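We recall that each integer encodes one residue's backbone shape. We quote one record:
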Amino acid sequence: MTAIESPCTLVCSIDLASGYCFGCGRTGAEIGAWISMTVDERRDVMAQLPARLATLIRPARRETRRSQLARERGETSS
């Protein structure tokens, strides 16, 4: 059995505005159908991913309690 090529980065979070995954750039439908796609269909989708990812604006990461306390103490992370 051969491995199926996949762009998955294990980030799995869909941008509500575009419908693209922030990690790989695929749509939810493409992710769901990935295993049943032919090699050529998967490669066609993969060719589109860099352009899709370039259009995404990633939301700011939520500040954790630890980083908030460090910021309040004036510490900086290196």
